[in-house]
Predict the 3D structure of the following.
Amino acid sequence: MQNKTRSCIQPLMNTLQNMRQQRPILKNISFPMYKYTRQELLGLCDGYANLFLCAGIESIIICLNDEMVRFARDHFGYICTPQNIKHFMEYYNCIMNIANNEKCQIFINGVAEPGKDLKKCRGIRQYYDCMKPEIIDKCGNEALKEFEISVIEYGCDLGGLNDFLRY
């Protein structure tokens, strides 16, 4: 079952790899959610949906501890679900423009690859703290909430905010 799931996830991983080759900035970012163009993100969401069509939900659930499945789930499990994508995209462009701020970006220098889970959250709290004032100012409180949820669903702790947002 793991082999089938891995073969189904491979097209998504190939797409990510191609994006990293075409846009080197993606190679050195540990939290790339707001570094993709809108079209790239929608394409990645299609790839994530195709994973479920190919492997089936049962196979994916059984393989949740597989590093590639976990990577895909952490990156796209929240933002690409039909219930969330519309809401996520509502604030995406505004947050993405702020995310290009180099003074904040230094906090998320790193890699986002399967098997690198332990390093993906390094600097994320500092990144959040750096981004927060500008998100509130330019995008609003609802956008900040969406940003917070995307960080938490990515698998990173924002120290106390996690409990607040879940209720």
Notes: The CA atoms of residues 24 and 126 lie 23 Å apart. Residues 2-22 form the longest helix (21 residues). The chain has one domain: 2-165. The radius of gyration is 15 Å.
